[in-house]
Specification:
By secondary structure, the chain is an alpha/beta fold. The chain has a domain at 82-106 and 221-397: Rossmann fold, CATH 3.40.50.1100. The chain has 20 helices and 13 strands. It has helices spanning 15-21, 40-43, 51-63, 69-79, 107-125, 138-147, 166-173, 188-199, 202-207, 218-221, 223-237, 253-263, 280-285, 311-317, 322-328, 336-350, 356-372, 390-397, 405-412, 424-432, and strands spanning 3-5, 30-32, 85-90, 93-97, 129-134, 153-160, 179-184, 209-212, 244-248, 270-275, 329-333, 378-382, 418-420. A 6-stranded mixed beta sheet has the order 3-4-12-9-10-11, sandwiched between helices. A 5-stranded parallel beta sheet has the order 8-5-6-7-13, sandwiched between helices. The protein is globular, with a radius of gyration of 21 Å. It binds pyridoxal-5'-phosphate. Residues 105, 107, 138, 248-254, 302-303, 357, 383-384 line the site of pyridoxal-5'-phosphate.
């Protein structure tokens, strides 16, 4: 299977090359040249497949040139060693909890899968890879945990000093081993600038194999299609078909994963693109032109994106047909007050505690159900554990949310971090003796 840039202006490459490159040389995002279909027999099995089997069947056509079946199995078993849960919160309303991984957000799926694949590649090439990541928090902790102790890979994370949450900082800075963290005296953009400059620096590139692990990486996208099929299988087991997936969205990688699953043969009724007031995509879906904007800060901050990077992938999946996209996707967007109200009401009605992102997805599902009166199952993807947003949630539900025991230990661990300024030279020197 070959991968090609959405800009169609650079050569097609293998999966491992697309993963190592991150962004294509022409600035586009990698997509498979064709979307493989799951065999009919997959959907007709009398014994429904579990998540690992689903992941294997879906990953194999993409990885077949790069890894043996045994290697794919081992990547999947190491990556997805945490549960996914589906909760019923009302008539035809389900919540798919994707936050039971080590950093309590759905980003663990993509980050861990990519990390294991990088390790396979480093072992095959017999060359150590150095991954540079600029992060504003969530991605950094998922990536750090994904790559922790992975052989053949070193990770250098850069984050803006004092601008990430305590738990995120602890989860990034206390691992040690192959994970190094730098706190930069600046903002997120300064971190990103340092990383970009490193990639174009001839001395650094001559002395080490640099790679990135940002959210547009194809290796992070693929596993985000697996859990849609898992939900589909779980529902059909109970005689429910044609789900409507409601996806709380920022850069739209998660939703793109769902569309990919559908193109691979999964039957879905449609998808809801649920956003906060950063509503570029819902506006486009309701008929206006796609117009990127500066992002606005909200309480669902992992979705504060004004120009979603994966939108171009969605366009490519539908051959740039706006009408095809609009007939399958519907947009909903909510402000902070509506988000808070939804957290309160869902808790009052069913005792369920949703993070602000999940609450936005659930509200879209509820409103769509009310509006269209369809007798179909709604599946809201839950993207983060509520404890990550306890400051926002606790005042609404008037009770405390406790930290899972396995996380509490991070708060007690010793932080190891190097401080740097935002100039390139000291960063380069640091990497040269790294
Ligand atoms: C990253 C993130 C999102 C948005 O996902 P996209 O794939 O960027 O659309 C939503 N919720 C949480 C908690 C996230 O961390």
């Amino acid at each position: 299977m070959q991968f090609i840039s959405t800009n169609r202006n650079s050569p097609s490459v293998s999966f491992l090359e697309a993963m190592r490159g991150g962004l294509a040389p022409d600035g586009g995002l990698y997509m498979p040249t064709e979307i493989p279909k799951l065999p009919n027999s997959f959907w007709l099995r009398s014994e429904p497949p579990n998540f690992q089997e689903i992941a294997f069947q879906m990953a194999k056509p993409y990885l077949i040139d790069a890894l043996s079946d045994e290697e794919i199995h081992s990547v999947i078993n190491d990556t997805f060693n945490f549960p996914i849960e589906m909760k019923s919160v009302g008539e035809n309303q389900f919540i798919l909890e994707l936050f039971h991984g080590p950093t309590l957000a759905f980003k663990d799926f993509g980050a861990r899968f990519m990390a294991r694949l990088f390790s396979e590649k480093a072992q095959k090439d017999q060359q150590e890879v150095t991954i540079l990541v600029a992060t504003s928090g969530d991605t950094g902790s998922a990536v750090a945990h994904g790559f922790y102790k992975v052989p053949g890979v070193r990770v250098c994370l850069l984050y803006p000093k004092g601008k990430v949450s305590k738990l995120q900082e602890q989860q990034m800075t206390t691992l040690g081993e192959n994970i190094t963290t730098l706190e930069v005296d600046g903002v997120f953009d300064d971190c990103q600038k340092l990383v970009k400059e490193a990639f174009t620096d001839p001395d650094l590139n001559a002395s080490m194999q640099l790679s990135s692990a940002n959210s547009i990486n194809i290796a992070r996208l693929l596993p985000q299609s697996f859990y849609y099929v898992f939900a589909h299988v779980e529902l059909s087991r109970n005689g429910r078909y044609d789900p409507i997936y409601s996806v709380p969205s920022g850069n739209f990688g998660n939703l793109t994963g769902g569309l990919l699953a559908m193109k691979m043969g999964m039957k879905a009724d449609s998808f809801l693109a649920a956003t906060n007031v950063n509503n570029v995509v819902p506006k486009y879906l309701s008929g206006s032109e796609y117009k990127p904007k500066d992002s606005i800060q909200t309480i669902s901050n992992a979705m504060d994106v004004g120009d979603p990077s994966n939108f171009v992938r969605i366009k490519t999946l539908f051959n740039d047909s706006d009408s095809a996209i609009r007939s399958l996707l519907k947009g909903y967007s909510y402000n902070d007050e509506q988000t808070r109200e939804t957290i309160r009401e869902l808790y009052k009605k069913s005792g369920y505690i949703a993070c602000p992102h999940t609450a936005i997805g659930y509200r879209a599902a509820m409103e769509d159900q009310k509006l269209t009166k369809r007798d179909k199952p709604y599946v809201t993807l839950s993207t983060a554990h509520p404890v990550k947003f306890r400051d926002v949630i606790e005042p609404e539900i008037d009770r405390e949310i406790s930290i899972p025991e396995r996380l509490e230990k991070w708060l007690k661990r010793e932080k190891k971090v190097h401080s740097i300024g935002k100039e390139f030279k000291p960063f380069k020197e640091f990497l040269m003796d790294f």
